[in-house]
Amino acid sequence: xxxxxxxxxxxxxxxxxxxLTRAAARLHLSQQALSTSIRVLEREVGVPLLERGSAGVTxxxxxxxxxxxxxxxxxxxxxxxxxxxxxxxxxTQALRIGYTPAVTGDELVTLLAPVTEAHPDITPDxxxxxxxxxxxxxLAGDLDIGLCRAMTPAHGLTRTILGHQRLHIAVSCDxxxxxxxxxALPELAHETFLVWGAPGRSGYxxxxxxxxxxxxxxxxxxRTSRQGTPPVTAVxxxxxxxxxxxxxGPAAGDKAxxxxxxxxxxxxxxxxxxxxxxxxxxxxxxxxVKL
Length: 291
Known about the structure:
Elements lengths: L4 H13 L2 H8 L3 H15 L4 E4 L2 E4 L1 H28 L4 E7 L5 H14 L3 E7 L2 H9 L5 E4 L9 E9 L1 E5 L9 E3 L7 E4 L7 H12 L5 E4 L18 E3 L4 E3 L4 E7 L3 E8 L6 H9 L3
Parallel strand pairs: 3-4, 3-5, 8-13, 9-10
Antiparallel strand pairs: 1-2, 5-14, 6-14, 7-11, 7-13, 12-13
């Protein structure tokens, strides 16, 4: 039996909308046509996928499992179409890269330098994405690779570690600690640390909190409102601190100062991608990246 990708799209839409009526409108189908498509899919699979009720539809466990895999299948198909069209049009190799705000633009430039020098035919196509957006774009086949720190890979994605980068502490230029060049983590037990993701919902935030716990204290954290900007800028004009991978010294036009953290602690740099897709430029990138 062969699965119909269109029917899988219909199932995903119903699950995401929670209603046959809203899903039908989203897909530009009649409700009857959509309902028939879902019932045919259930007959093909051999088990119920949805529970229909007066309050809407509920995805059953078998439906949830199929949806997880359907997103991966759709992404593989989209990636295959993209590659075929690229080759057929004689276009240069594009490397569609996504990266979360935890990875800076400067770091990305440094990572790409040996790749583009050795392979000038590869054209990077770079997009900053928040973690949930990065996951969705990778699963949809719209990105070839995603760079992040400590993100748990969603079902269907592969994660590989590119290396570790040393963490430092960023403070505003008028912070009392700005006069120093280095600091030990236990000295910061009573400070407030700015984070980008909520504890318990962000792998990177949880990693930073674990570093503090290993240093002997439970950190005070506050989620910054400056989302999507370079991490070092979050501390400007505040009395708070932030973990950054920016090198020590003045930063952000002298509006921030980076202190060396002693003894050294590190943060991983991960790459996420959709396996079972062919992407020579991604293979080249993973081969050349050295931290």
